[in-house]
Amino acid sequence: MSTMGPDANAPWYMKYGARGVGTAGGIIAMGLGFFNCLTFSAWCLVAGIYQLFAGFIVVSAEAPCCCMFIDFVQRYSKFVEERPQWQKAALYIVLSLPGIIMCQSVSIFFGSGFIFLTGVLYGMMALGRKGSRNDMLAAAQASGPVGATGMKSSLVNMEAPPATS
Questions:
Q1: Residue 7, domain member (yes or no)
Q2: Structural domain tally of the chain?
């Protein structure tokens, strides 16, 4: 990963943690998807095949070294790496949902759950770091005193309570 990319301000442990969870979760999702293909239910068979596909997409994006003998994986991985964090989060979260919708089994839940967790980690990186205590105090004090023109007055617009009859 480059230090000047879209995730340059994310902490190192979040970057590598999301990549690790994505890689391990994609491999686990592929294994559990294959296991789910051994079922006799048509929807669970389709969900297992979909989970195999979703796991491959995640692994090829997060750890292209696992798929180095497939021609397009390096270009695809570079393309995904250059995307902003919120787009990666949206991709992984949306990618995890159809399998769970098609078949409610433990193997689909865990496999898609790891992909969903990867999306959540990228979403947390997209939100950024929390402000320091001093920054939050300054923002709270800049809004003025609590009262007619303070912070709480904008929440209720100084309206009267509804009449009870």
A1: no
A2: 1
